[in-house]
Design goal:
about 15% strand; 5 domains; about 525 residues; Glutaredoxin; 22 helices; 4-stranded mixed beta sheet; globular; 12 strands; alpha/beta; Rossmann fold
Length: about 525
């Protein structure tokens, strides 16, 4: 593995920023031209090129936090800390703490900005009561009731028919749970038949879409299932090395994950000759330097190869030419965890978990105007209404006005769609998508059009800038929306034309969906535009 991004991360952890002098010294030590370091360090949001203040308060500005009046809370915080030259308050994109909205980071501490006194106390170095968190009962997702039985699926698979693993997953119908929904077994089998070696396995734990935080909880509580899923995948495709690519904001989860990896090595489930077999698999963690675009698998690969995280043109796909141009299997955290359950208990078990004719279960991040935001494990086929009930209904008894069932990139549905079943096909038929597995419920206390504006700004902010349609189109859309409080029929038609252009010509999914949520609001909720 090349060293540049890792070395830049270590340098920033040490100094708090990347100075010109230190970059020159690092370039000399790595025997790289300085422009390479400049190019990479200026692309990623996590890297600072100016000295930080003593304390930085990084306030989330996106969908769930904005709905929770995060902007107003941030203003109160600025007033409370006014005149403090040692404190910097800045707004950043979603930090994956939508269940604590409105949320902010003070260092690695997660705080709610509604509690101004607590934030000021942390800034001043005073101790505050730690967050009390009990491990939830994940039901069937636990797979192993006794921790001593962990890695049973891996033990059973070693020495057996490797292709049987992908065939079992294909029979189960498991699809990727990160957003694209590609059949998991088919992806494993495609990489397995590639003749080139070495091959790699990567877990994409960089969920960065507003409203999405389910993988965070799986990483914290069920890391062993993900690790086992990766080891099973490695055995299936013939890989001996893998990485978990995790967003830098997930520091507590990284610590928990590393502890689980260390335990897996100690148990013989990772490393050389796993459980005495001829199979070896080395696993390590790669910390992302930041950016929503890195959730796109080829942008992730570019980052791991020490370049700017800009999506590649496809084909070739990663399964053929991925990391270092070698066949690479990429799935997300939840997909690997479910694969373990299926390979442990079988296809019939997986099918039995769903409702009606739907198979399996799904982790859903739930945020917005609900009584109890959080991660819910729900049967595939259960309705959006059931999901809302599991979270205690709408907060303060307010009326539901809209639902984004698959995260900030999904189209908004009206409240009469609460009876829609949660699954890939049913949500697509309803005009939206399962997406990243993040349901955001919007109540009457929120301005739906402003939510759409905020999502459009998010995609504008997170565009990598590589392709002109996405870079220019998202900026144009934001400027159009900022002209007036209303959206006229003429502007709506212009936005529809712009969306069609971005959908046809953008390199990756960011540009292809950037204007979709806003247009769904204008279509499904015409009153939201305030004009006919």
């Amino acid at each position: 593995m090349r060293a540049l991004v890792h070395e830049l991360t270590l340098l920033q952890e040490r100094d708090g920023w990347l100075s010109k002098a230190e970059l020159k010294a690092l370039a000399k030590r790595l025997n790289l031209p300085l422009h390479r370091l400049e190019s990479v360090s200026t692309f990623y949001t996590h890297f600072r090129r100016t000295p930080p203040k003593r304390v930085e308060v990084a306030v989330c500005r996106d969908l769930s936090c904005a709905m929770a009046r995060g902007g107003e809370a941030a203003e109160r915080l600025r007033a409370a800390l006014s005149g403090r030259d040692d404190v910097e308050i800045r707004e950043i994109s979603c930090i994956g703490r939508c269940d604590r909205a409105p949320a902010a980071f003070v260092g690695h501490d997660v705080v709610s900005t509604t509690d101004t006194d607590e934030v000021v106390a942390i800034v001043d170095g005073r101790s505050v009561d730690p967050e009390v968190r009990s491990t939830p009962n994940w039901g069937e997702a636990e797979v192993y009731r006794d921790p001593a039985d962990r890695y049973g699926a891996l033990r059973a698979a070693l020495g057996g028919d490797r292709s049987a693993l992908s065939e079992t997953l294909e029979a189960s119908g498991l699809r990727g749970m990160g957003g694209a929904g590609f059949p998991t077994g088919k992806k494993w089998s495609l990489v397995a038949v590639e003749p080139a070696t070495p091959k790699y396995v990567i877990c994409n734990a960089d969920e960065s879409e507003p409203g999405t935080f389910k993988d965070r909880e799986v990483l914290r509580d069920l890391s062993h299932l993900m690790i086992e899923g990766m080891a099973l995948a490695a055995y299936c495709v013939g890989a001996e090395r893998g990485w978990v690519f995790i967003r830098h904001e997930y520091e507590p989860e990284r610590v928990a994950l590393q502890a689980a990896i260390d335990a897996a090595y100690a148990a013989g489930a990772l490393g050389k000759n796993i459980f005495g077999s001829d199979c070896s698999f080395e696993l390590e963690v790669f910390v992302s330097p930041g950016g929503y675009i890195l959730g796109e698998e080829t942008a992730l690969l570019e980052c791991m190869e020490d370049r700017r995280g800009e999506p590649r043109n496809k084909p070739p796909f990663p399964g053929v030419e991925g990391l270092f141009n070698q066949p690479t299997l990429i799935n997300n955290v939840e997909t690997f965890a479910h694969a373990t359950g299926i390979l442990r208990h079988g296809v019939d078990w997986w099918r039995s978990l769903g409702e009606s004719d739907h198979a399996g279960h799904k982790f859903i991040s739930v945020s917005g105007d609900v009584e109890r935001p959080g991660v819910v494990l729900i049967p595939m086929g259960a309705t959006l209404g059931t999901l809302l009930e599991r979270c205690g209904g709408m907060r303060d008894g307010q009326r539901l006005i809209a639902i984004a069932p698959g995260g900030a990139s999904s189209n908004f549905l009206p409240p009469d769609q609460l009876d829609v079943a949660i699954d890939f096909g049913t949500l697509e038929a309803a005009g939206s998508m399962l997406g990243s597995g993040a349901a955001v419920f919007v109540g009457e206390s929120n301005d739906l059009l402003e939510a759409g504006r905020g999502i459009t700004r998010f995609f504008r902010n997170e565009s990598c800038g590589k392709c002109v349609p996405c870079r220019v189109g998202t900026e144009k859309a934001v400027k159009m929306l900022e002209v007036a409080a209303d959206v006229s029929d003429h502007q709506r038609r212009e936005l529809e034309e712009l969306h069609a252009t971005l959908a046809r010509t953008s390199i990756c999914g960011l540009g292809q969906v950037a204007l979709g949520p806003l247009l769904s609001i204008l279509k499904n909720f015409p009153a939201a535009s305030h004009q006919s």
